[in-house]
Write a structure and sequence with these properties.
The complex is a heterodimer of chains A (258) and B (337). By secondary structure, chain A is α/β, with parallel strands linked by helices. Chain A is built from 10 helices and 10 strands. Helices cover 36% and strands 26% of the residues of chain A. In chain A, helix 6 (151-164) packs parallel to helix 7. Chain B has helices at residues 21-29, 34-69, 94-125, 128-143, 146-172, 188-212, 216-224, 229-258, 261-266, 285-292, 298-328; strands spanning 82-83, 90-91. The chains are: A alpha/beta (258), B mainly alpha (337). Chain B: Residues 10-20 have a biased composition (Pro residues).
């Protein structure tokens, strides 16, 4: 079930270094929101605060609020483990578990969450692989290791693994940057289908990709190296790419810097 | 030196006679410059030297062993005796083989789980500032000479085993394996415990290195699915480190199989098989050789060398088995990720 994300006054640190400063935004359910901006502007860090992965990094800590519908992810007594079961994530480099088969990779999250009968597991795995447009390519070799697939297939396997547990939100951290154009296209098509069911946030360095897949786009920037990253603006993608309200956004998009 | 011989990208030199086929082949392999040739020679030589040494040991052991075994009046594999002096020598390795294997199994059963737990604690649970000091102490444990372990075992460990042995006898004595006749606890279990302490550091250190090399992205994959710290360990760390832990255990096992002084100091040996691990007696290959070598005549030494050959073979078999285990699930090993 897709949920709305409401971020207010979010600041994240690595030790004493402030990585992102005072970010507020709203992400609508069943939409794709793209984060763009130059390297080091904190868009990946910000993404990782949305499922509390930021604090896994030594020294990582967060101030501010992230509301998932009405539940504060950083509220007292909220278990980061349960947050991550509601907010799934796909990483830059495909990272299927190398020691598991394709089937077990997709079932990994389910097995964490509870006891499923074999038949239920089979159904969910098939549904998730179909959902990731991978079923036809792997249905005959579900027991083979996931690391034997191509890079693009591995990334779709990771998406299948993430959606198998039916998260509310799906975070994608440059999911196509390690892939060739054809695999990238397959993932972009998939994102278009997945937004019917999930709230999707995607970080990308590829502005054409942001323009192709997203409904809304957020532009992040930093004043100088070592300065914290800030949200410059967030608006409908069409508007960001045609007529942004901030000059820096237009400079970045038209290739004048970054 | 002419620059054109140093760079690959240099334009081709003016026409020259075609190089002979052999030269062409060597050029293709890239070993044409003196540094490459010297390095190739060194590495190849080292590899060959290793094989020659192994072969020399095997030949030496086999030759001397065959001299002794051909004059054995008992059965070399099944005789429960070790008499090499006199006209009718009778000796067999049954007791030694069983003792060696049993003491090593006990040591492994105790040391591997503890070592893996320590390694996991150091890599995934301990506060960062404690990791260094704890790892250092474990390294120190590996630096203690084995005779010191033996003395500690004989003077401290043995007297303190009575309580454990009594408890085991009370509750598990009915199995026979843990029956105790209240003799001095210079028995296989004590040896196994001492060996476990001795092999703990090497298994811990190698396992720690392996666990440290689990790629961050696999652990993050598990975390992002909502795995707890233990579930991350179970899903990503242990499977990835499995073959490394097996290798680490084999290193430890190698030491346990061959350990001499510590066993000789602690064990009160005899040449019988004992069902109980708690009653004194039995022996190991290395302990037997150390105990008898100085007083043995030439034939007696050949007999001991024959027992050494068996230990050599057992070690080879164990290593082969470990390699099989590692190879069987190679495509899942994570090495190809």
């Amino acid at each position: 079930m897709a949920k709305r994300i409401d971020v207010s006054g979010l600041t994240a640190y690595y030790g004493s270094h402030k990585a992102i400063d005072d970010i507020s935004m709203t992400v609508e359910p069943r939409s794709v929101t793209a984060f763009i901006g130059p390297s080091g502007c904190g868009k990946s860090t910000f993404l990782r605060t949305l499922n509390r992965m930021h604090e896994v990094t030594p020294g990582g800590r967060v101030e501010g609020k992230v509301l998932l519908d009405d539940e504060d992810l950083y509220g007292a007594g909220v278990d980061p483990v349960s947050v991550r079961r509601e907010v799934g994530m796909v990483f830059q480099r495909p990272n299927p578990f190398p020691t598991m088969s394709i089937f077990d990779n997709v079932a990994a999250g389910l097995r964490l969450n509870g006891n499923y009968r074999k038949s239920e597991l089979n159904d969910i795995v098939e549904k998730s692989l179909r959902g990731a447009n991978l079923w036809n390519e792997v249905k005959d070799r579900l027991n083979k290791p996931g690391s034997g697939l191509s890079g693009g297939q591995q990334q779709r396997l990771c998406i299948a693994r993430a959606i198998a547990v039916e998260p509310d939100v799906l975070l994608m951290d440059e999911p196509c940057s390690a892939l060739d154009p054809i695999s990238t296209l397959a993932i972009e098509d998939l994102i278009g289908e997945l937004k019917e069911r999930f709230t999707i946030v995607i970080v990308t360095h590829n502005m054409q990709q942001a323009a192709r897949v997203s409904d809304r786009t957020a532009f992040f920037n930093l004043a100088a190296v070592g300065q914290p990253g800030k949200l410059v603006e967030i608006d409908d993608t069409e508007r960001i790419f045609s007529n942004p309200s901030v000059q820096a956004t237009e400079d970045y998009i038209s290739g004048r810097f970054g | 030196m002419d620059i054109s011989t140093k760079t690959h990208d240099a334009p081709p030199p003016p026409p020259q006679p075609r190089p002979a086929p052999a030269e062409q082949k060597r050029a293709a392999r890239g070993a044409t410059r003196p540094g490459d040739r010297i390095f190739l020679g060194l590495t190849r030589g080292s590899g060959i030297l290793l094989l020659v040494i192994m072969a020399a040991i095997a030949v030496f052991l086999s030759y001397r062993a065959s001299l002794a075994i051909s004059k054995d009046n008992g059965n070399f594999l099944t005789t429960f005796e070790w008499v090499t002096a006199g006209l009718e020598p009778r000796f067999g390795i049954a007791v030694l083989a069983v003792g060696t294997v049993v003491s090593s199994i006990i040591a492994m059963a105790i040391a591997v789980p503890i070592a893996v737990a320590i390694a996991l604690f150091l890599t995934h649970y301990a506060p960062r500032r404690l990791r260094g000091p704890i790892a250092y102490v474990i390294d120190l444990l590996a630096a203690v000479p084995s005779i010191v372990y033996g003395l500690w075992g004989a003077l401290i460990l043995v007297p303190h085993m009575n309580g454990l042995f009594g408890w085991l006898d009370d509750y598990l004595g009915w199995t026979g394996i843990f029956a105790w006749d209240e003799g001095a606890p210079r028995a296989m279990l004590t040896v196994g415990i001492l060996l476990a302490i001795m092999i703990l550091p090497i298994i811990t250190n190698v396992s720690r290195e392996v666990f440290r090399q689990v790629p961050q992205m696999h652990e993050e994959a598990a975390l992002a699915l909502g795995a707890t710290r233990w579930e991350v360990v179970r899903m990503a760390v242990l499977p990835f480190g499995r073959s490394g832990v097996i290798s680490a255990s084999m290193l430890g096992l190698g030491r346990a199989l061959g350990e001499t002084m510590a066993v000789a100091t602690v064990l009160s040996p005899d040449f019988d098989l004992h069902a109980s691990l708690l009653n004194p007696g039995g022996g190991t290959f290395a302990q037997n050789i150390a105990a008898k070598f100085s007083e043995a005549d030439e034939f007696g030494r050949d007999a001991l060398i024959a027992s050494g050959l068996v230990l050599f073979v057992i070690t080879l078999l164990v290593n082969g088995a470990a390699r099989l285990i590692i190879a069987r699930r190679k495509e899942y090993s994570g090495a190809n990720a």
